[in-house]
Design brief:
InterPro entries: Cofac_haem-bd_dom (IPR007314). It holds the Pfam family Cofac_haem_bdg. This is Haem-binding uptake Tiki superfamily ChaN domain-containing protein. The protein has a domain of 168 residues: Rossmann fold. Helix content is 42%, strand content 15%. It is built from eleven helices and eight strands. The chain has an eight-stranded mixed β-sheet with strand order 2-1-8-7-3-6-4-5, with helices on both faces. Helix 2 packs parallel to helix 5, helix 3 packs antiparallel against helix 4 and helix 9 packs across helix 10. The radius of gyration is 20 Å and the shape is globular. The termini are far apart.
């Protein structure tokens, strides 16, 4: 097992593909192989990502292989597919459809080929079960627009596939969510507050669904290790999906691996204020700024969030 001594400095990532893994409790830099050694007996390994960042996705792929080599009984669960498309994923995994058919039929994300293809192909060629873990996107959007009562409009079939209690909350998560969305701890506008509440319930629906799907995978494949891929907001600080997992299954061992952008300071790596974000951190290069022109950025964000809804929630 290769572990960098605790006294050795953590080397900065040199390219957008590089990641530097650090054990949060000790500050030691670990190789992928050393990380896998430490995680081999863990029930659920949750790898947070910055969607579309090459460093996140390469690390996920390398860890998937390293864990499989130590413990071939593995299940891959992914936020990036929703449970309504499990059948389409199953057809592809069984070799009955082609990749483009799967991408179209299973509603794969736009960056599937660049980001997730290696993970899915490893699972397919090594007969690793693949579980679509997210709630259906249209249902999430409609809950965000109309509130929790929207679920009462669903047919019995799809409603039965969602968690029985889809909006379970955990301490500290709502404050983090509101601050991330608004940049503050709240708003005095009742209309905005109502919309924010619905948006938060949509977030809870995602997290509760992913937690439920992970636990279902554990029941369907006893003794298997779960590798779960998700946007980091759903897992960092052991909040979101992770908090719901540990609430529903307290005896489950869950490890959280959290991304962090590398920044330099007089004291070097900024670890002390980030230890609580995950059991392990992996440092990657920051992404380029989307905008330097603040007015242009405001206009772009305004346009993004004022687009008319294309799905009918009635």
């Amino acid at each position: 097992m290769t572990i960098t001594p605790a006294t050795a400095p953590v080397t900065p990532p040199e390219t957008q593909y590089d990641a530097r893994i650090v054990e949060a409790s000790t500050g030691r830099q670990l190789s992928i192989e050393a990380l896998a050694d430490q995680l081999v007996t863990t029930d659920v390994v949750v790898v947070g990502e910055y969607h579309g960042h090459h460093g996140s996705h390469l690390l996920q792929s390398q860890l998937q292989r390293a864990l499989f080599q130590l413990r071939p009984k593995q299940v891959l669960t992914m936020e990036q597919f929703d449970l309504a498309h499990q059948a389409e994923l199953d057809l592809y995994m069984a070799g009955k459809t082609g990749e483009t058919e799967m991408i179209e039929d299973a509603g794969a994300w736009d960056n599937y080929r660049a980001s997730y293809r290696p993970l899915v192909e490893f699972a397919r060629t090594h007969k690793v079960p693949l579980v679509a873990a997210n709630a259906p996107a249209q249902i999430v959007r409609c809950v965000g627009r109309m509130g929790p009562a929207y679920l009462d409009k669903l047919g019995a079939g799809i409603r039965a596939r969602l968690p029985e209690q889809p909006f379970i909350d955990t301490p500290g998560y709502s404050e983090k969510f509101v601050q991330a969305i608004t940049g503050s701890h709240g708003t005095g506008d009742p209309a905005i507050s109502e919309r924010m509440n619905n948006t938060y319930r949509a977030q809870l629906l995602r997290d509760n669904t992913m937690a439920a799907r992970i636990l279902e995978a554990r029941e369907t494949h006893p003794g298997h290790q779960i590798l779960h891929l998700t946007g980091t907001f759903h897992s960092e600080g052991r909040l979101g999906t992770v908090a719901l997992l540990t609430r529903r299954a307290p005896d489950l061992s869950v490890a959280v691996i959290t991304p962090a952008f590398w920044t330099t300071s007089d004291k070097g790596i900024p670890l002390e204020d980030r230890r609580g974000e995950g059991d392990y951190l992996y440092f990657i290069q920051p992404l380029p700024d989307e905008y330097r022109d603040e007015e242009r950025e405001r206009e772009a964000m305004k346009a993004r969030f004022s687009r008319p809804a294309t799905q009918n929630c009635d």
